[in-house]
Structure formats: structure tokens, C-alpha cells
Input
Amino acid sequence: MRTFVIAANWKMYKTPHEAKRFVMEFLPLITRSLHRRIMIFPTALCLPTMLEVTKDHNLDIGAQNCHFQAEGAFTGENSPKTIADLGARAVLVGHSERRALFGETDSYLAQKVKAVQDFGMSPMLCVGESLAERDAGQTEAVIEKQLREGLSKADLQGRLIIAYEPVWAIGTGKVATPDQAEKAHKYLRSVLHELAGENVATQTSILYGGSVKPNNAAEIGSQLNIDGFLVGGASLEPKDFATIVNVSIK
Ligand code: 13P
Output
């Protein structure tokens, strides 16, 4: 059985104080469920606070990005070794904002996926097509390339989470239809099957991201190959994120 994962990507929002306040308001709002993993990806500077305030709770904290080297002369970067040492459990790799705004390529991201695994954490590899690519009928080709190349250095039997985030649905309020999302997820699972075999394909959680809100989460999450969400805007409000968590029981 795959774990249903509900993940918050806070992007460059929230100070440590605001992050702490979020956790205090959020925790009492969530109902218990065994097969559910809740993750929050705050900014790197909020990691120590978030790890401290969530340490007695069933909540995993991850980083939004890291370098692929453990250490070195890389001014301003965050090391996966440091992130793991703090106690983080996962790192987002290849979010579309990293690809589009910071020029991260598939081969560069492959090194990060490996580094995150090497330090015992789960990479959450993000893939997704632009609107122009979808309109040109290239969705499957684009996400397949991102998945294959992003995983080219990975331990395919190791820790891994995939997030499908169509670029045109991120922060736009335009959510993929359950059908569009399910089709992409099913395809990604078939590529995983080719790459790593049946076991990995059936066990790997593939999350959907892109304008997930309290009012559309249940329908999207009910699709067979959708194993959770990566939520941006709606994860910034404790009530909204708790509602998404609470309607997400498969
Ligand atoms: P929104 O939920 O704001 O569309 O953002 C999605 C996202 O980028 C999560 O990583």
C-alpha cells in the first residue's frame, strides 16, 4: 500500500516566528490517520525552528532545495549533509521555480537526487509540463524525460517521492482536471515500472501539485494513481491546509 502524502511547500514565505505560529494553530485541527504522511517544506532558515516545534508530532520537515555536494566553496548554498544533520527527512528537487528561475537542468538535478538519498533523506523530484508543451501534445514526453534524467543517478530501490506539478497550474488557480492529473500520474508510474520494476512502481507515492485547494482536494485525491498533494498557496493558512489533510484519507 502506498503512503498518502500531503506536503506543504511554503516557498519564500513565513519567518521562523510565523512558522511556529502556524504549527500551533495547525496541529489541533488535524484528525488522526495511520496511512498518511504530512510534510512541510519551509525555507532553509526556518528548518531548525520547524524541527524543534514538531519534534513530538507526526510531521516530517524537509528543505526546498540543496546543493549536490556535501561541502565546499559554494557561497550561499545549503548542504544536504547539514540539512540531514538538522533532522530533516526530505528535500524538494527540481521544483518548476528552480528549473525556470534558477536554470536547474535535469542532469544537475540528478546529482541532487543522489545527494539527498546519500544522506538518508527522501528526494521529492518534481516534474511537469508548461502550457505550451501541453498544447503541443508533449506532456508525456516532457515528464518522461524529466523523470528518467532526474533519476539517472538515483538508487531506484531507495527513498523516493515524485510530484507531478503542471507548470500552468502552479499559483494560477487553474487546477488540472482529475482526469488530466490521473493520466499523467499513470504515465509516470508506467515509466517508473520500466525503470525500476513493479515493486518500486507500485510503492512510490506520486503527488499532484498545482492549485490544490480545500474544495478540490478530495476529488483529485480520489484518483487511483494520485497519492497525495504538494500544496503551495493553500498550505500557508493552517485552516486550509488542515482541511486538505483531513479530506485526504483514501
Ligand atoms: P500552488 O498550490 O500555489 O498552485 O503551488 C503549487 C506548488 O508549486 C507546490 O510546490
User: Anything to note?
Assistant: Residues 7-28+35-64 form one domain. The radius of gyration is 17 Å.
